[in-house]
Amino acid sequence: MLLSSFRSCKVVTGFQSGIRGCIWASFGFLGGGSVANMDQMSGSKRYSSDMAEFRKHFDKASHIVVLTGAGISAESGVPTFRGAGGFWRRWQAQDLASPNAFRKNPSLVWEFYHYRREVMASKEPNKAHLALAECEERLQKQNRRVVIITQNIDELHKRAGSKNILELHGNLFKTRCTQCGDIQYNRDSPICFALAGKGAPDPEAEDARIPVDQLPRCKKPDCGGLLRPHVVWFGESLDSNVMRRAEEELDSCDLCLVVGTSSVVYPAAMFAPQVARRGVPVAEFNIEETSATDSFGFHFSGPAGENVPQALAPTENEPAT
After folding, report:
1. Which intervals of the chain form a coiled coil (predicted)?
2. CATH architecture of residue range(s) 48-78+124-169+238-315
């Protein structure tokens, strides 16, 4: 499967760096040849918005993969840091979410992530998160599998009750030591004393300029190294184990849902089109169409919190509970 070529891909956005960087570089073709026309790759078939027809596929599916992105969390009030107004102070997320930014100014990057961690304390899973968790629990009793592969780092799926979750881009509430590599779950608020009251998103806010030795540090004996958020930054490779497990789920699913993703961050943006190319029904749930919409069998416009619960509600053929 083509999905295996994504294991070593780095997180990038856009058509040229995404498609060419992930597909052609994976096969050693970067620098020569041409990129295939997307309409030829995915087909130009128009989608259906017939919920009753989608529900027929859902009723028969035994292995469902749900790909989720920032849009589903946006309905819980989580900032996306994309599009117009998508700034923290004077920076967009990609300006700070990189190894180079952390090397240059770890204090500023930690302020940004401290702000995001604190914001999440006030957010709750929405109806779409809850519907996915309920569906997973219900179908498990019928020996049917539901797996979430998410680009989100906010833990809202976990808090909603979902169990089968693959976090492609890491977790906002995990840290990784830059010295010994130790990974720890951490929901401390604040994560360190020096960050208390810091991270205001106001463009006029002054940078805290916290000394490195006062930023979050590793608590392992004989280490004390600088911690970083355990998330995948732009330019970094996705975790190979997570990618392998995602590949296995995508290669064997018989129904795929794409919820709240803009289909611009690669390699994740190629997952659903690849599934569709092997004939598996794919349904997109999004506020608007995306560049990948026409490669899917179904598209449902509108809030995920309205459409996803309807799509995944029990069918007449399911056993009574």
Report:
1. 132-159
2. 3-Layer(aba) Sandwich (3.40)
Report the pLDDT averaged over residues 110-134: 96
Distance CA 171, CA 193 (A): 21
pTM here is 0.86
The mean-pLDDT minimum among 48-57, 68-77, 103-112, 260-269 falls in 260-269
Mean pLDDT of 87-96: 90
Residue 177 marked ligand-binding: yes
How buried is 165 (Cβ within 10 angstroms: 0-12 exposed, 13-18 middle, 19+ buried)?
buried
Alpha carbon of 202 to those of 9, 113, 207: distances in Å?
34, 15, 11
Q: Which of 114, 129, 157, 169 is catalytic?
A: 169
Domains of the chain, residue spans: 48-78+124-169+238-315, 81-122+170-231
Ligand-binding site membership of 135 (annotated): no
CATH number at 81-122+170-231: 3.30.1600.10
